[in-house]
Amino acid sequence: MFGFHFCKVSGMSMSPRIPENSYVFVVPWLKILSLKEGCLLQVFHPKYGYIVKSLATIDRNGLFWLKGHHKSSIPIEQLGPVGKSQIQGKVLWVFPPK
Q1: C-alpha triplet 84, 63, 69: angle, nearest 5°
Q2: How far apart (Å, rounded) are the C-alpha atoms in residues 28 and 43?
Q3: pLDDT-derived band at 2, boundaries 50, 70, 90
Q4: CATH code of the domain in which 41 resides
Q5: Phi and psi dihedrals of 29, rounded to 5?
Q6: Number of folded domains in the chain?
Q7: pLDDT tens-place string over residues 25-42
């Protein structure tokens, strides 16, 4: 209705920035604004499905390279780049589990 949603983050790939089993508040329309390194994004990855990662860089071809924060996260090279159409939204808030 308002274009935003909550989703649960399972796994430790974004820990400690996003603790396992946290909920994140995602705003889809913010993906059209300028994205900067370090932004938290929800994307639909062709191999891994819906994931939340940090924006590592945007290459000269306009592709987005993402990374996790935990040592167990999939390496940036293995994750590969995603296009802007795969970005589902920008994470504005993280609600850690109690």
Answers
A1: 90
A2: 10
A3: low
A4: 2.10.109.10
A5: -70, -15
A6: 1
A7: 999 987 667 789 999 999
